[in-house]
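Kindly inspect the following:
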Amino acid sequence: MSDISSINHSVIRDIKNVTASGRRVVFVAGNFNTVHPGHLRLLRFAAECGDCLVVGVANDDVEGVLLPEQLRLDGIKAIGFVDFAFVMHTSVETLISDLKPAVVVKGGEHESHFNPEQAAVDAYGGKLLFSSGEMRFSSMDLLKQEIFEPNLSSIIRPTDYLERHGFSMADLRAIMAKFKGFRVTVLGDLIVDEYVNCEALGMSQEDPTLVVTPIQSQRFIGGAAIVASHAREMGAEVNYFSVSGADASAIFARDKLHEYGVTASVFEDDSRPTTLKQRFRASGKTLLRVSHLRQHELEQQLARRFVESVKAALKSSDLLIFSDFNYGCLPQSVVDEISEECRRRRIPMVADSQSSSQMGDVSRFKGMMLLTPTEREARLAVRDYNAGLVVLAEKLREKSQAANILLTLGAEGIIAHASSVNPDEWLTDRLPAFNTSPKDTAGAGDSLLTCCSMAMAVGADIWQSMYLGSIAAACQVSRVGNIPLSQRDMAQELAD
């Protein structure tokens, strides 16, 4: 028996097990000389007809085959929504009779011809469907490319800044090397972000409303969870503490955190759902955001358990990151008690407190090594809506007693307001936004906070740290959705 036949027997056995479990198997067969958009439409249609898509690829002896069977099989296996694929060494009808798929799909052009598969599916009560798929399915791979493949070519690194502060890319690479094994504790809201990609159908005739149809959705962990994941993927050992509901979003988030290697302590709170933020997008633009959440503070007993668990983790921690989204995970009493414990243990602390659609006060985090608010968040904290940026940063520093302030300004970049050897002197410098064509700005602040704070904690100065943080943010916004930054992502941009 040949190797390929042995593989086929194993795959067919696995497919039969799927059928036996009650899941609907859909079967498609073909030559697949080249996988073109028509194939993608047909296969995507087939995938949506059941729970498991199985594809049979014709062997090299079949008429019309132009390329070697293994090459054609590899092309089919590379398609994300294909669950099983194998080379067929028997007739399609025989395979159908053996596998008994719930649905067999053929291209719409075959509907008016004789189809021997019909008798095979009729014998056990299956269905034979004809379709060439829909035009919208050919865009699926483009959506995946937008999500998973960053566009790093749009990142521009200013070199004059390096000369001004006397460091090089080699210095930054040496700082990144220190992240390996560094111990980070992250506290803050657990959020699941769902991106629903849609096709615009047009304008409703009943009222002036845009009509769309969803074609693909993708979930990511967000909030403080992605901060923890960034730190882990960049080499640190990470303990993450948060709260969630008892729901599917929480299960998804725990699974993702485990996949990324984050040690997570997520306390269930019956009184709240896990925060889920949905973004409905079309043609690369966000049309609508819907947030499913509750914002009340932790009840006292749960807060006590939370604090005690964090204190235990601080015994082996080199840095604490407060990543606050103002949904109740970090009430002031919790922040104050944990901050006091960090000061007692001389553990540096950093904080970010987001106020985009919600209200917060970043100045409530006292004595931080670093704060990274947006301009709006800084103005909300000090109640000053007119002062210049340097004056604004100084007011926030005084109120929060922070050592360093990074004001993030979106497309205008960031400004650092930093301490110096002279306690009466404060230093300021700015960096432009490194990415000139961002795809999705949602995760920029989280990646900047993580990388910049870790750099400072391992000994870098504020200027080196903000440059590394800017590179991290530029990499993050070069793709859609929250995917943790890795050492490899950063290394590409830190090359000389």
Observations:
- Residues 1-5, 135-147 have pLDDT under 50 and may be disordered.
- The first helix runs from residue 3 to 20.
- The two ends are 54 Å apart (CA to CA).
- The CA atoms of residues 327 and 342 lie 23 Å apart.
